[in-house]
Amino acid sequence: xxxxxxxxxxxxxxxxxxxxxxxxxxxxxxxxxxxxxxxxxxxxxxxxxxxxxxxxxxxxxxxxxxxxxxxxxxxxxxxxxxxxxxxxxxxxxxxxxxxxxxxxxxxxxxxxxxxxxxxxxxxxxxxxxxxxxxxxxxxxxxxxxxxxxxxxxxxxxxxxxxxxxxxxxxxxxxxxxxxxxxxxxxxxxxxxxxxxx
Length: 197
Description:
By secondary structure, the chain is of the alpha+beta class. It is built from six helices and ten strands, in the order ααββββββαβαβαββα.
């Protein structure tokens, strides 16, 4: 017993003492590798890709109009029969404001519908936001957060492309920029539209 203690004193540091330092070092290296890798944070994997969209039924945003007509709420059955771009947005979301012009551009194309999921917002603020920037949506559902969770929303904005069979085919996380809109989102949308023909 005395020999074991003498041996530990001779080597200086116990292996048990080094273990947390080794684990911390390995985790630091792993974290740094992930941060500086070429992975695009916009392409977070989604368990819902190529799966049916969740069942849901959301009320409309009270008072919201487009071309003088009330904008209806949004539910699962609205996804059937044509390709749908589903945009998760909120008036309090600065990146939503930044990407809004790309949604307005999409609204000029009648080969698909655009549905908005107004996330954790208020009717008044959503109306003000869309009155100021324009309303690209054919329908908007007011969500307190539950439906967003079912769709696997990490945060706003997020934009999905759902095919005519209500299968989620693509998910873009974060705001669309000029480059991501032109080089990533539009090609994905065109591919899905061509498959739907």
